[in-house]
């Protein structure tokens, strides 16, 4: 997988964290800088760790699935892309936001589950994991900060289009794996 593809993957994976951070930015008026850094650090850390976990767990079964790697990568990215697009059209529920350690850990895990699958795909592509994981974590950290900041500045933002764009990017990456 090329670095350009990894950057696109990092951007697509960071959209969930950006949207969650945007919601937090709308809700929190006190300690904005501290809360933005804590949230961005947590989402960035988990987005960087989950691909590593997926990457190394794939090593256990890699010899069995390697002949089907292109199709598996296509299926994973297409599934994730369709999931992002589907979620963009679902009606959002009113959510209570908290920013204590427990909530931050839950947000970090929830926004990074897709990155676990990306780690599997990176392993199947034969990529090394350190640089992509760092890049995914850093891009997520930056996008999370941007989302939090924008949430404080804007009251209504079409997050639906961000999710649709991320979904399309993932589907395109999946299609690229077939060729």
Describe this structure in words.
This protein is mostly helical and 179 residues long. The protein has helices at residues 3-27, 32-58, 62-65, 69-89, 101-125, 130-153, 159-177. The longest helix has 27 residues, at 32-58. It is globular. The model has no long low-confidence stretch (mean pLDDT 83).
Along the chain, the helix and strand elements come as HHHHHHH
C-alpha Rg, in Å?
16 Å
Query: What value does the average pLDDT take?
Result: 83
Overall morphology: globular
In DSSP terms, counting alpha (H) and pi (I) runs of 4 or more, how many helices?
7
Unreliable stretches (pLDDT < 50, length at least 5) are none
Q: How can the largest sheet be summarized?
A: none
Distance between the termini: 12 Å
| Residue share in helix | over 70%
Give the amount of beta strand, in percent.
Answer: under 5%
Number of strands: 0
Give me the secondary-structure category.
mainly alpha
Please supply descriptive tags for the structure shown above.
mainly alpha; globular; 179 residues; 81% helix
SSE arrangement:
Elements lengths: L2 H25 L4 H27 L3 H4 L3 H21 L11 H25 L4 H24 L5 H19 L2
